[in-house]
Amino acid sequence: MHVELQTPPAPTPVWPMLRTLGTIATISGLLVVLADQLSQPMIADKQRLLTERRVFQMVPGAVSKRDFVVTPEGRLEAADSGASGDPVYAAYDADGQLKAVAILGTGSGYAGPVQVMFAYDPGCQCLVGSKVLKSNETPGFGDKLDFDPAFLKNFEALDARLNDEGTALANAIVTVKHGTKTEPWQIDAITGATISSRAMGKAANQAAQRAAPAIQRDLAKLTQPN
Question: Where in this chain does the entry annotate a coiled-coil region (predicted)?
Fold first, then answer.
């Protein structure tokens, strides 16, 4: 009986296969990098417009803004100067007069950090507005931080005066139990949302402690023509 032997298939060349896979991986990587580079300007512009809208909502009469940073050394510098630090946003009316400075702070809430933007008026050295940027607080309670009329009255003229040295607040901003506010630097808490209210107090104190000394020290940079 004749048995026909089958010739095994030739092995797939390893090097050409690896070269093809490498080429595909390289092209894929380049496409990802290219897509990221193309999308970054759009993301940055979208964030800029969102910040601008929030500032104008919080500061009535503001129609333009300039971006600054508070450096780790406590100096106020223009954001486009290359300096790094905590961002602050100076808001101006149609005549170019400074209305307020938007400053940022974070406090620990019931369900995580509460990030807040505050309007700081250098003239009265007080906070005159607030806007919650990020919060995971319980719906129905945490929402009141932005909409409860009685609570928002805390930020009509919340005392943020500096000490005699101009290095920190004369009195730390704190949240007190609802109905027990006696000082202009105290925040009257929302009944049933004490932890969220305390988060606002911590955020306000953090924001003012960081930014107010630099703003007062370098106020001329905010008021001089752009």
Answer: none
